[in-house]
């Protein structure tokens, strides 16, 4: 099956949990999955993957987390044609720009030539039952998209 690379940024553990849910579902679907914290990898590591996933939180008033900014900037320079991508993340609806980092990564991935494999999933703080269902559906859609390439 396909190789999925998931890169995440997590301060409170919520986004790491989201990434784990997606990873577990992709493994259940038969894919090889590698899950890495964003400061331990380079954006170019997505070149070896069939499915590229970013899981990020949004900091403060709609900001990318400091630890993922370099990864974000390097992503735009990649050619990921022939690959599938997806973005998930956590945020807090208390803030004006809920999960804005998810939207920014979607825009960045669009510059790489990769195909969007599923609609993004945005989670308010920690994943609840409905969020878990949405994240598993996200993984299922990515799995189907990579098989249709």
Can you tell me about this structure?
The protein is of the alpha/beta class and about 150 residues long. The chain has four helices and six strands. Strands 1, 2, 3, 4, 5 and 6 form a six-stranded parallel β-sheet that branches. The longest helix has 19 residues, at about 130-145.
Record the SSE blueprint.
Elements: E1 3-8, H1 14-28, E2 32-37, E3 51-57, H2 69-75, E4 84-91, H3 100-110, E5 115-116, E6 121-124, H4 129-147
Parallel strand pairs: 1-2, 1-3, 3-4, 4-5, 4-6
Which H/E pattern describes the elements? Answer: EHEEHEHEEH
pLDDT below 50 for ≥5 consecutive residues: which ranges? none
Counting DSSP E segments of at least 2 residues, the number of strands comes to 6
The proportion of residues in beta strands is 15-25%
Radius of gyration: 14 Å
What structural class do you assign from the helix and strand content? alpha/beta
Percentage of helical residues? 25-40%
Instruction: Based on Cα principal axes, name the global outline.
Output: globular
The biggest beta sheet reads: 6 strands, parallel
Quaternary assembly: single chain
Individual helix count: 4
Q: Span between N and C termini?
A: 13 Å
Could you report the average pLDDT, rounded to the nearest whole number?
97
Supply the key terms.
149 residues; alpha/beta
Summarize the structure.
This protein is an alpha/beta fold and 149 residues long.
């Amino acid at each position: 099956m396909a190789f999925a690379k998931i890169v995440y940024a997590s301060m409170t553990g919520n986004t790491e949990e989201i990434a784990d849910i997606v990873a577990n579902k992709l493994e259940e679907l038969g894919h090889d999955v590698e899950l890495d914290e964003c400061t331990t990898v380079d954006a170019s590591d997505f070149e070896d993957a069939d499915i590229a996933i970013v899981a990020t939180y949004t900091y403060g008033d709609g900001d990318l987390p400091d630890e993922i900014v370099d990864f974000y900037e390097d992503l735009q320079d990649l050619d990921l044609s022939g690959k599938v991508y997806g973005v998930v993340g956590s945020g807090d609806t208390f803030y004006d720009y809920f999960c804005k980092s998810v939207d920014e990564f979607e825009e960045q991935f669009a510059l790489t030539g990769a195909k969007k494999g599923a609609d993004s999933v945005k989670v308010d703080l920690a994943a609840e039952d409905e969020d878990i269902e949405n994240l598993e559906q996200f993984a299922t859609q990515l799995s189907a998209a990579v098989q249709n390439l």
